[in-house]
Amino acid sequence: MHNSALINLNMAETAIKELGVPKFFFSSSVCVYRDMNPGEKILNEEDAIPANPDNEYGWEKLYSERLYQAFGRKYNTKVRIARFQNCYGPEGTWRGGREKAPAALSRKIAEIEGNSGEIEVWGDGKARRQFVYVKDMVDAIYKLMHSDIESSVNIGPSDDISVNGLVDVISKISRKEIRINHIEGPVGVQSRNFSNEKILSLGWEPKYSLRQGMEETYDWLEKKVR
Question: What is the CATH number of domain 2-225?
Fold first, then answer.
């Protein structure tokens, strides 16, 4: 929270107040929303408040959204804010403990020699997530920056998948038979269900299915592992 808040305070002060940039983009996160149950009523962007993020990362993101909006109003800068869902794709972090599930699971499967093996997955694998391919994410940001939407905007697909389901997708791509060993570990929220109507209203929709995006991601990551 300390480091992220300082980054955003300094960026707001320098870019908006001192340099007077006409337009500013802030990458927020769907972590501003509370933990939800699968199938729970869909939330829109305004439903993030009253706030109850499940971790400090979400609280800081929510604070920084308000920070940039306040600076934008005072100094006449057009601020655009995207709340990212789980973004994945080639060139992303794939080892070291900070990687997202698509990269972590792909790495584990790519490291298996032969046509079958076992990987470890934290928790029961039933937590559900939405994953957006990086090329779709960039396209959405471009459309948002050229829009008149001043409020925060969710970016991501409407369909979700369980962690176990994601393993199955990668298993098929790798042509390996994968067994899952569920172990204790942090799993984060069970689900987040939110509306993407604002970004869809700009003519954006994902061009890549999860299977297509994961094929490109796994191909790139497999080469890295080798």
Answer: 3.40.50.720
208 is catalytic: no
**What number of CA atoms fall less than 13 Å from residue 90's CA on the CB side?**
12
In the prediction, which pLDDT does 18 show?
Answer: 98
Query: pTM higher than 0.85 for the full model?
Result: yes
The dihedral through the CA atoms of 139, 143, 145, 151 has a sign that is negative
Domain boundaries, the chain: 2-225
pLDDT tens-place string over residues 17-43: 999 999 999 999 999 999 988 888 888
Q: 């176990």: which residue's tokens?
A: 164
Q: How distant, in Å, are the alpha carbons of 48, 55, 60, 124, 195 from that of 33?
A: 5, 10, 12, 22, 12
Which residue is catalytic, options 33, 57, 63, 133?
57
**Beta carbons within 8 Å of 157's beta carbon, 6+ residues apart:** 85, 130, 131, 132, 136, 196, 206, 210
For 39: left if phi > 0, alpha if psi spans -120 to 50, otherwise beta; the answer is left
Beta strand extents in the chain (DSSP E only): 23-29, 78-84, 86-88, 116-122, 128-129, 131-133, 152-155, 161-162, 177-183
d(CA 74, CA 55) in angstroms, rounded, equals 30
Distance of CA 189 to the CA centre of its chain: 13
**Phi/psi-derived region of residue 203, left when phi > 0, alpha when psi is between -120 and 50, beta in every other case:** left
Residue-wise pLDDT tens digits, 49-92? 999 998 999 999 999 999 999 999 999 999 999 999 999 999 99
